[in-house]
Prior knowledge:
Layout: E1 2-3, E2 8-9, E3 20-25, E4 31-36, E5 41-45, H1 55-59, E6 74-75, E7 86-87, H2 90-120, H3 124-137, H4 142-159, H5 161-184, H6 187-191, H7 199-215, H8 217-224, E8 226-228, E9 235-237, H9 239-247, H10 256-280, H11 284-292, H12 297-325, H13 329-334, H14 352-359, H15 368-402
Antiparallel strand pairs: 1-2, 3-4, 4-5, 6-7, 8-9
Amino acid sequence: IYNMTTGSLRWEGAAPRSALRQLAFAGNYDRFTALDVQGVMHRWELVDHHPESSWSAFFGKIWYEGASAPAYAWQSSAGSDEFEAKYSLVPLFYGTVKGTFYALLFALPIALTAAIYVSQFLRPEFRQVVKPVMEIMASLPSVVLGFLAGLWLAPLVDSRIVPLLCAVAVLAPAAIAAGFIWSALPQPWRRQVAPGMEFLWLLPFVVLCGWLAWMSGPAIEAFFFTVKDSSSGLPIADIREWWRQSTGATYDSRNSLVVGFVMGFAVIPIVFTIAEDALSNVPNSLVSGSLALGASRWQTVWSVVIPTAISGIVSGVMIGFGRAIGETMIVVMATGNTAVMESNPFSGMRTLSANIAVELPEAAAGHTHYRALFLGACCLFLLTFVINTLAEILRQRLRERYKVV
């Protein structure tokens, strides 16, 4: 007996040696009775509590009834009695990796560069304020961040997606340009500003560039993303409609960018705190020796401080990775929580942790759905265990490599 959905063999047995005269099946096909030519009745009963579960169902493509092609799908319930449960964990793995990628893409550059600047360039009196503030930010409940993301940030980003993307894209180049302009100024001018106070003069330039990019967003949207309205036929400047028509992909207001921004906001304090501690604990003798040999402050940071503190920096990054990969409430509240496998940055996702939080209270104990959720929890634990183990191996090798510095 095969399960045609999963393609797995559920039972195999031999028929009676005598020829069969009649064969009758029960209504749900779990029992059948046969009568042979000698008048002997044979009964079989199939006891299979989880016929829809198999390794191929959990991790492979299945061609479900009514589908046009085999696919990875997770759908544990529906409103119809004819519904066929789907328990593929692949979309949940994909959503977990996708959410973590966007969170770290936003968090790591900000957290690491901020840690370098605060520990090596900022004046001590400012450092004593910034460090506690970042540590307090790490204690913000994720449910509060998810609430703000779902009810405030997602509608805001939905109506101003182009200005926001323009501002974010301009901030980093503006900061680099500000530093380059500062380094090109005459030495007497720069000496008039106390060391560690340069940001007070450079920050207005960066903010001005971000504001100009934000204000130019509507003009950029009108120039590049004008399409015909599907209902009126008139040209409109709307990146959401342009995205749907040009790519054929979906656009959700609660999308991966919103989740990445908010999850990144939750990850930044953790990575910053650990990386800043590692950078601040580099012996002053190494820094002073490098400066005495003629290296600039930045050359000292790049060639001496960062290699010495690299093991601590890697630890901070991996702890931030674990924070992002296990995040639950932000994903539940800030996305559509749909188990889809799309690389589209404007679509939602469902992660392993969010799936467990949403569906476990409604799962019947001992049911296939219940066991599939526990399998997802075990996979999440195994994923984090493997990644943290690899990170620890990398950290130890980096420590051995730079211990002579």
